[in-house]
Amino acid sequence: MQENENMSHEHDNDEHHDHAHDDNDTIEHTHEHDDDEHHAHAHHEEGFIRKYIFSLDHKMIGKQFLIYGLIMLFVGGGLALLFRWQLAYPETPELEGGKPAKAAKPLPIIGPSQKYIDDGEVVTRADKMWERIFDSDKAEFLEVNMPSGFIEPHFYNMLFTMHATIMVFFVVVPILVGAFGNFLIPLMIGTRDMAFPVLNMLSFWLAVLAAVVMAAGFFVPGGHASAGWTGYAPLSVDPQWTGVNWGLNLWAISLLIQGFSSLVGSINYITTIINMRAPGMTWLRLPLVIWSLFIVAILLLLAFPVLSSALALLIFDRLAGTTFFTSTAEGGGSALLWQHLFWFFGHPEVYILILPGMGIASELVAVFSRKPIFGYRSMVYAMIAIAFLGWVVWGHHMFQSGMRPGMGAFFMTTTMLIAVPSAIKTFNWLGTMFRGSIRFTTPMLHAIAFVSMFVIGGLSGIYMANTPVDVYIHDTYYIVAHIHYVVFGGSLFAIFGGIIFWFPKMYGRYMNDTLSKIHFWLTFIAFNCTFFPMHILGVGGHMRRISNPMQYEYLQTFEGMNLFITMSAFTLGFVQLILVFNFVWSIYRGKVAEKNPWNVNTLEWEAPTPVPHGNFAQIPNVYRGPYEYSVPGEESDFIPQAQPEHAPASAGD
Amino acid sequence: MLGWLPENISTFAQGVDGLFRLIYWITVVVFVLVIGTLIIFLIKYRHRAGHRAEYIEGSTKLEIIWTAVTTVIVFGLAMLSFPQWNNLKSPAENPDYVVQVRGEQFNWYMIYPGPDNELGTEDDLELENELYVPVNKVVQILLTSKDVIHSFFIPNLRQKQDALPNRTIDTLKFRAIKTGRYEIPCAELCGFGHSGMLGYLIVQTQEEYDAWVAEQWPE
Q: What's the rounded Cα separation, in Å, for the pair A326 and A235?
C-alpha cells in the first residue's frame, strides 16, 4: 500500500494540493488545520498566542520543547550541584583508625557564616535569611531539609531523586524526542506538518503540566519524592519509611501526565512517518535520524504504558490501601513486582535516551566527512536490534534483587548481546570517516565526542552485564559513571551538536562559532573530569546514593577525589551558561544563515530559511538516498535528495 | 584502576577479581584500538584543499567480520561467567555456621541460632551491627528485612545481596580467609538513614571465636 501511495504521489506532485495533505484531511478535520491548508502558501498572519503559545506548527512546538528542555536542564543540573557540594564537604565523624573528625562546610552564598554557626551572631545576608526562617513557623520546608544551609540526608535523597527524574523525563526525552522529533520529522520526510497538529500541541502542554506538578512537589510538607528515580517499593509505598507524603504522590502523578504526553507524541510520530513521506521517500531513503525517531516512537508507545500502570498501582497502594507492592507474613503483593514493571519500562527507556543521539551523530558524521554512511542498512538493522533487545534485558538491573539466580544467567547473555549492534554502529561511524574529507565544524566535534564517549559508556556496560562482577559494582558509583557516559557523554553531546547544526534552519541564523567551540572544549574536559573518576570510586566500592562517604572507613581515601569531582561538576555546570548565552544571543544577533549552510542533502535544507508555515512551497520529490556525498563524476560533493536525476553537474542551491 | 579494589578475603569470590581483570584488559584493548583508529582517521582524512572524499557505501564482508568477532567475544565472556555466578549465588552445601541477618531502618541485626543450632528458639542471640565469624569456615547468611529493601554489601568479600521484607534469601555465603574487622554498608537506598547504615564483619581465629561463643552462651 505504501508503494502505491508513493507512486500516486509522484504523478500528482504538480498539483497544488498534494496527496499527503488530502490524506491528512480525511484523518483530521479541525478548523485550524483547514486554515493552515488554505494558507499554506500565503503569508498567513497569526496572533501572538496562536503563533508562540498554543501553536499547531510542528516547528514552533519543537522549539518550545527545546526551550522547555534547556530550562529543565538547568533545574536538574542545579540540583546535582547542590548534592555535589555535600559530597565534597561532608562531616567527617570520629572513626576508629579513620581521619580526624571535621565539620561539614555550609553551602556557598546561601549558607551561613562560621560565626553564625558557632555563636549565632548574624553577620552576612545569608545569616539574616536563616534567622528569619528559623523565626517563622511557616517555612518548614527549608527548616526540615536544609538547617542553616547544610544539606541534610533527607534533603540529599530528595536532590538526587529529582536530579535523575528531571534529567531523564524532563530534559533528555523532551529535547531528543520532543524538540528534534517535532522539528525534523516533517521537514526531513518532506511534508507540511505532523499528522495530528492538535495532538502535537496537546503533547507539549501536557509536558508543561507535568513539569508544573513535578515542581509543586518541592513545596509540599514533607518535601519531594526521595525514594530514588527508580522509586523502589516498599520505600516508595508507605510514607512512614521516608516521611514523604504528597511529594511522592505528585511525583507519580506528574510522571503519569508525562506518560500521556509521550504517548500522544509517539502516536503522532509513527502516523506521520508511515503516511506522510514525500513522494519517492522510501523507507531505505529515510535519514538515519528519522529511523531512530521512528524506532524510539514505537518504544515509547509500548514502554510508557507499563510505567503508567505501575505508577497507577503505586498510587493505589499509597492512597487506597491496596498492597500490590507490599506484603505481610500472611500474603499480599511483592516488592519485586515494582522492579519488574519499572525496569520493563526502564530499559527500553534507556534506549529511548540514546537512539536519537545515535541518529543525530550519524547525520553529523556523514555530512562532515562528506561521505555516505558506511553500511546504511546495517545501521538501521542495528538500531532495530537494539530496540528489540531492549525488551529482554530488564533483569540486568535486578541481579542482586533476590530474583532467581538462573534468570541472571539469561539476562546476562541477552545484555552482553547488545554489545554486538553497538559495536556495529561504532565501527560504521569509523567506516564513514574512513577516506573521508573531515570538516572539524563544531557540530562535528560534538559528534566525535559522542562516538568516543559512547565507546567508553558501552565498554563500561560490559562490566555490569557480567553477573559475577556486577555483584560487586552493582549500586556503586560505577553505574553512575556508566549512565552519565551514555546519557551525558552520548545523548547530551548529540543534543548540543544537533542544536548547533540545525540552529540555522530553526532560527535563520548561525550560533556564534567561537563561543560554541569554547563551550565544546570546556564541556568535554569538565565532563570527563567529573565522570571518569567515578569509575574509580565504583571500583573502590563507593556506594551511590549515600550522602556522606566519610562515614565509612574504606571510603575515606576518596575524600580528595570527591572534591575534585565536585570542582569539575561546578565547572561543567557553569560552562553551560556559555551555551545559553550563545543560544539566546544568536536568535536575535547571530549571523544570518543561507538556505543550506552546511551543504546537506536531506530535505529540511530544501525549505526556505526561516521555514514558513507549511514548510515547502511545493512538496519535494525524492530521487535518492540521504547520503549521496562525493559521488564520483559529479562536480559538487553533494546531491540533494530532491534534485532530479541527470541535473547539470553544477548542483547547489 | 584495579589497584583501587579493596582486599579480597573470600574464597568464593577469588574468581571474580580474575574476571574483572579479564574484562578490564579486553575493554582497554578495544578502547585503545577504537579510539586510536578514530584519531588516526581524524588526522589522516582531515579536509585538505583539492582533496575529495572517497565514495564508499559499506562493506558486507567487514560487517560480517565485526558482527561475528563481537558475538564470539561476548558469548565467550558469558560462558566464562556462568560457573562464577553459580558459585556466588547458590545456597551453601553443609555450611559450618548459619547466621540470620535482618535489615531494619537503619541497622543490621545478626541473629545467632545458639547451641541448639535452630533459629527462632529461646537461646538465639541478636547482635546489632556486629557479625562475628571464624576464619576459613563457610558461613551461610539467611538474609531478610523488616521494612524496606536493604542491600547487604561486604566489599572485601565481593558479596552483595538485597534483603527483601517477608522473604528469606539463602544464597549468600562466604569463607573469609583473613582475620580482621571489615565494613558491611547498606547498598540499596533505604531512607534518610541509608548513608551511615553500617555493620561490621569481625573475622576471628577459631580459638577467639570459640572463646566468644563460650562468653555469649555460658553453660
A: 10
pLDDT confidence bin for A141, thresholds 50/70/90 = low
Total structural domains within chain A: 1
Which residues in chain A are contacts of B34 at CB distance < 8 A?
A: 426, 430, 455
**Could you give the CA distance from residue A174 to residue A164 in angstroms, rounded to a whole number?**
14
Residue A144 near chain B (CB below 8 Å): no
pLDDT band at residue A51 under the 50/70/90 scheme: confident
Nearest to A505 by CA among A287, A281, A188, A270: A188
Domains of chain B: 2-47+56-89 (1.10.287.90), 97-216 (2.60.40.420)
Alpha-carbon gap, residue A509 to A519, rounded angstroms: 18
- The interface pTM score, or ipTM, of the predicted complex is 0.95
Nearest-CA neighbor of A167 among A159, A58, A147, A200? Answer: A159
- In terms of CA atoms, which chain B residue is nearest residue A637? B52
Q: What is the pLDDT of residues A290-349, one digit of tens each?
A: 999 999 999 999 999 999 999 999 999 999 989 999 987 777 889 999 999 999 999 999
Three cell numbers written together for A86: 555535600
Cβ–Cβ below 8 Å for B160 and A539: no
Q: Give the DSSP per-residue string, A314-350.
A: HHHHHHT---SS-EETTEE--HHHHHHHHHHHHHHHH
* CB-CB neighbors (< 8 A) of A471 in chain B: 13, 16, 88-89, 158-160
pLDDT at A3 over 60: no
Q: What DSSP designation does A176 have? A: I
Query: Could you give the 3-state DSSP secondary structure of residue A306?
Result: helix
**Facing B85 at nearest CB: one of A409, A474, A539:** A409
Angle at A610 between CA A609 and CA A614, to 5 degrees: 100
**Cell numbers that stand for B172 in this block:** 549468600
Query: Is residue A80 domain-resident?
Result: yes
- Nearest residue in chain A measured CA to CA from B196: A551
What is the domain-level CATH number for residue A309? 1.20.210.10
* Cell (9 digits) for A646: 541527470
Residue A389 lies in a domain: yes
Kindly report the nearest CA distance between residue A314 and chain B, in angstroms.
15
Range of the structural domain that residue A485 is part of: 53-96+150-589
Residue A38's pLDDT band, with cuts at 50, 70 and 90, is very low
Place of cell 582517521: B41
**pLDDT surpassing 50 at residue A14:** no
**What pairs with residue B184 in β-bridges?**
B199
Residue A580 lies in a domain: yes
Query: Tell me: the pLDDT tens digits for A564-618?
Result: 999 999 999 999 999 999 999 999 999 999 999 999 999 999 999 889 989 999 9
The alpha carbon of residue A445 is apart from the nearest alpha carbon of chain B, in Å, by 11
**Cell reading at A532:** 571518569
CB contact under 8 A, B162 and A400: yes
Please say if the pLDDT value at position A42 is more than 60: no
DSSP B2: G
Q: Taking the alpha carbons of A26, A27, A31, A34 in that order, is the dihedral positive or negative?
A: negative
Task: Residue window 310-349, chain A: list those with CB within 8 Å of chain B.
Answer: 326-329, 332, 335-336
Which residues of chain A are within 8 Å of residue B35 when distances are taken between CB atoms?
A: 452, 455
- Asked if B166 has any chain A CB less than 8 Å from its own CB, the reply is yes
Residue A256 in domain: yes
Backbone dihedral region of A151: left (phi > 0), alpha (psi from -120 to 50 degrees) or beta?
Answer: beta
**Closest residue of chain A to B2, computed from CA coordinates:** A539
Q: Do the Cβ atoms of A467 and A397 come closer than 8 Å?
A: no
Do B192 and A243 make contact, defined as CB atoms within 8 angstroms?
yes
- Chain B residue with minimal CA distance to A536? B1
* CB contact B64 to A (< 8 Å): no
Peptide bond before B106: cis, by omega within 30 degrees of 0?
yes
Enumerate residues 611 to 630 of chain A having a beta carbon within 8 A of any beta carbon in chain B.
629-630
